[in-house]
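Pipeline run #58 for the internal structure catalog. This entry was flagged by the ingest filter as a single-chain record with no existing model, so it goes straight to prediction. Upstream metadata was stripped on purpose; only the residue string is passed forward. Reviewer on rotation: M.T. Logging verbosity set to normal.
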Amino acid sequence: MRVRIRNHVNPKGLGFVHFRGEMPELEPGRPVDLEVGCADAQFLFELAERDASRRYVGLEIREELVEAVNRQATDRGVPVTAVFCHANRHMHEMFDEARVSRVFVNFPDPWFKRKQRKRRMVDPLLADQIARLLEPGGELLVQTDVWVVALDALESFEGRDDAFDNLAGEWTFWKEGNPYGVRSWREQQCEGKGRQIWRLRYRRTNTPAGPPRLHLDDD
């Protein structure tokens, strides 16, 4: 059963300036899959059911969801952990460089209003953070049903100093569907309603990651 939680949290709130979450202990040599904005983590739970040899970490800004995901992971006995954090601000504090094998960004909040656009999660800062933590050859999948968010993502990752190789070709969306065979709740809803889904699929190149930029702008 899905947990009913408020849909939006202002990521510019002062409560997200410092990292207050608890990171799971990551075993040396064990691959790590990361979902940025995991919500109820259905996507990660389905991955874990298929392959329990990896560690699955979800970053989520809604603390109630983090608690619910971790309870469910304990009950089900699967290697899934949610972490309460502001991903754009804190990923560089949470992971060593090149520590993550795969990153998923599934249907981030669109924040449609013009004055709220700076609250969107997918931006050049997020691209910088992911470039730093994703290992060479690691994969990145971005999915959204909102055209303007898809364009934001395309611009953010294509412009990241050749750190990402677009597997569909430069400045091109992935057209071969979800390659992982598991779906988030939002993806299921979009497919059920016949909504267009735009996808980007990248592979991390061997280009060294530069120093992480800090998130200094506020409302």
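catalog note: Residues 1-6 have pLDDT under 50 and may be disordered.
catalog note: Residues 27-204 form a domain with the Rossmann fold fold (CATH 3.40.50.150).
status: ready for reviewer M.T.
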